């Protein structure tokens, strides 16, 4: 059946014009993967919801407020257990959607009035003649002699409380359950601005300066929109962890971060008309990097620069040490089956002169022959060494063999950024000595590309606004409204 244009809304025998909440259609929705597990998931709702078979689009049953429900996999199918009955099995996705109990009378093309009990497939005329499609989760309002009233919505906030393992969190929007990789996947579908309300406080401390929070909100919006485009056709757009950006739902929301999202609503950062990758990290350690030095792709708006605003006592001068045995296990692969590491050196640094861009590891293989391995790009170096940042100095510790006794000799392989790029060359005076291990001291936390959160904090403290902050960390960018459309 084609879309109807809603002309009249039948409520208590009085007809009113229909108004549609702009927020529900303005930005679209984001689908967030919250969990993927083989064990059951429990949930309950704070208002009236419906269980809908997404494969057929058919209503299954109502879910009442505060009822305890369980979802589980049985024989590779989805089964729901409510307080009074079970539903299923389902092979396709099933959604818990906000339920609205109303009836509409619509005027079809043949001028016949047709009564409908749901909003799906309908179109409404909003304020100013704006036409908007409706869905079962649309929020409708009507003007009566008593003023504007919301129709069919349960009183209070509509939330789904989800228990996965030991975690129990509440979420806005709808919840979908489907089968992903032979596991039960839980996907939260909600408006992008509501999604950001659960992201910003998870990525930045809510008591930080307002302008830093606004900068974070813009970048989080950029990231979500870009992922939305990249993942079109997939069952979800983003995950709720650091693989995407951290999202903790309704329970993480704060007044300050909600305000940051609201005051930047619809704003995105663009370069040459395209939404940019809003990459950010915790602390730069004083240096921002070119994107190609940390990963592979060169992006014109992500360039190296010094970062004098990133000053903090949390992520500077941290230290890590590894024994030879730990290094051997760390770098051993099927292609390079080290049984002992004989040397490790930073062979190349980034264009900023700060982070290790290339590691060369030398050692002995199972056959007693020398083998080597290279690790390229700063983010790979950081990952393989398990460090907070690839901005570090390294000391090599040797066990020097002596006829009288064993003594330890320390050789210092240092790299002071912007001072001398040749200081990473290893001291070879101890030929024949055994490498006992390394000591690392470094600064920064994260990949070092794009915005430094601690740098944004520092700029905001000095009176810079969020536009200044964003334009400092990203080259040749501008802020545009309406999601870049």
Largest sheet report: 7 strands, mixed
Strand proportion, as a percent range, falls in 35-45%
Distance between the termini: 30 Å
Q: What global shape is seen?
A: globular
User: Mind telling me the C-alpha Rg?
Assistant: 28 Å
The neighbouring-strand order within the major sheet is 7-6-11-20-21-4-22
Report helical residue fraction. 10-25%
Number of strands: 36
User: How many alpha or pi helices?
Assistant: 9
Class per helix and strand makeup:
alpha+beta
pLDDT < 50 stretches: 1-26, 403-409, 414-432
Mean pLDDT: 83
Describe the structure.
The chain is of the alpha+beta class and 485 residues long. The protein is built from nine helices and 36 strands. Among the domains are: 1-190, no CATH class; 318-442, no CATH class. The chain has a seven-stranded mixed beta sheet with strand order 7-6-11-20-21-4-22. Strands 1, 2, 12, 13, 14 and 15 form a six-stranded mixed beta sheet that branches. It has a six-stranded antiparallel beta sheet with strand order 10-9-8-5-18-19, with no helix packed on it. A hairpin with a 2-residue loop joins β18 and β19 (167-171). α2 (192-203) packs across α3 (210-230), α3 (210-230) runs antiparallel to α8 (453-461) and α3 (210-230) crosses α9 (466-473). The longest helix is centred in the middle third of the chain and has 21 residues, at 210-230. The model is unreliable at 1-26, 403-409 and 414-432 (pLDDT under 50).
């Amino acid at each position: 059946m084609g879309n109807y244009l809603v002309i009249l809304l039948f409520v208590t025998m009085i007809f009113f014009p229909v108004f549609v909440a702009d927020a529900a259609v303005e930005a679209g929705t984001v689908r967030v993967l919250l969990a993927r597990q083989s064990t059951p998931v429990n949930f309950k709702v704070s208002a009236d919801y419906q269980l809908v078979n997404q494969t057929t689009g058919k209503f299954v049953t109502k879910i009442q407020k505060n009822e305890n429900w369980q979802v589980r996999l049985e024989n590779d199918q989805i089964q729901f257990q409510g307080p009074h009955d079970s539903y299923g099995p389902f092979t396709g996705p099933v959604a818990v959607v906000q339920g609205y109990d109303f009836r509409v009378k619509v005027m079809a093309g043949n001028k016949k009035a047709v009564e409908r009990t749901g909003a799906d497939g309908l179109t409404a005329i909003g304020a100013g003649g704006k036409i908007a499609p409706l869905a079962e989760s649309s929020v409708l309002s009507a003007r009566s002699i008593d003023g504007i009233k919301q129709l069919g919505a349960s009183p209070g906030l509509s939330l789904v409380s989800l228990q996965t393992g030991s975690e129990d969190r509440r979420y806005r929007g709808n919840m979908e359950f489907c089968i992903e990789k032979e596991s039960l996947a839980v996907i939260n579908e909600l408006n992008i601005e509501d999604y950001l309300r659960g992201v910003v406080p998870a990525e930045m401390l809510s008591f930080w300066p307002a302008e830093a929070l606004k900068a974070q909100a813009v970048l989080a919006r950029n990231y979500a929109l870009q992922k939305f485009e990249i993942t079109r056709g997939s069952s979800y757009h983003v995950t709720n962890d650091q693989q995407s950006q951290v999202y903790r739902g309704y329970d993480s929301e704060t007044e300050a971060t909600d305000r940051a999202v609201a005051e930047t609503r619809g704003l995105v950062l663009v370069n040459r008309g395209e939404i940019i990758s809003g990459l950010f990290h915790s602390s730069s350690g004083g240096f921002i990097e070119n994107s190609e030095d940390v990963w592979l792709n060169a992006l014109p708006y992500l360039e190296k620069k010094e970062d004098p605003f990133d000053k903090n006592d949390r992520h500077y001068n941290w230290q890590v040490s590894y024994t030879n045995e730990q290094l051997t296990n760390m770098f051993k692969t099927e292609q390079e089956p080290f049984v002992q590491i004989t040397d490790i050196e930073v062979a190349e640094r980034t264009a900023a002169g700060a982070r290790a861009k290339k590691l060369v590891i030398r050692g002995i293989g199972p056959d007693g022959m020398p083998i080597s391995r290279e690790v390229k790009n700063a983010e790979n170096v950081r990952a393989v060494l398990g460090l907070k940042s690839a901005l570090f100095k390294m000391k090599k510790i040797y066990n020097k063999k002596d006829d009288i006794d064993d003594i330890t000799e320390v050789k210092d392989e240092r790299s002071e950024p912007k001072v001398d790029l040749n200081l990473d060359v290893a001291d070879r005076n101890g030929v024949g000595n055994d490498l006992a291990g390394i000591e690392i001291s470094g600064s920064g936390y994260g990949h070092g590309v794009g915005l430094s959160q601690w740098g944004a904090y520092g700029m905001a403290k000095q009176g810079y606004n969020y536009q200044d902050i964003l334009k400092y960390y990203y080259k040749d960018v501008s802020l545009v409204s309406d999601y870049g459309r």
